[in-house]
Write the structure tokens for this entry.
Amino acid sequence: MAIFLSLTFIPLQSSAATITDPAALVDPKPAESAEAETLLLRLDEIKATDMSELKASEKKNLRKEVRSINHRLKAISGGVYISAGAAIIILLLLIILL
């Protein structure tokens, strides 16, 4: 059990040195990347605006737009993410049950 727990605390720098095969990497869909690029450009435009000259309602609308853009970007990226704590709990449950 101590071996399994010690393996969970391996530094991330050790995996950074591995070399990946460029052919094994999957390119995102062109339509999704184009949409993501336009969303990122819009975020840059919003960040570049001078907020001191805007009214409160305009600022509120921009905040809503930024939230919706961030939400759409997360939906485009997809994938399943798991936290480190959840990974440790799953690992412990597997050890106990098996």
Notes: The longest helix spans residues 56-77.
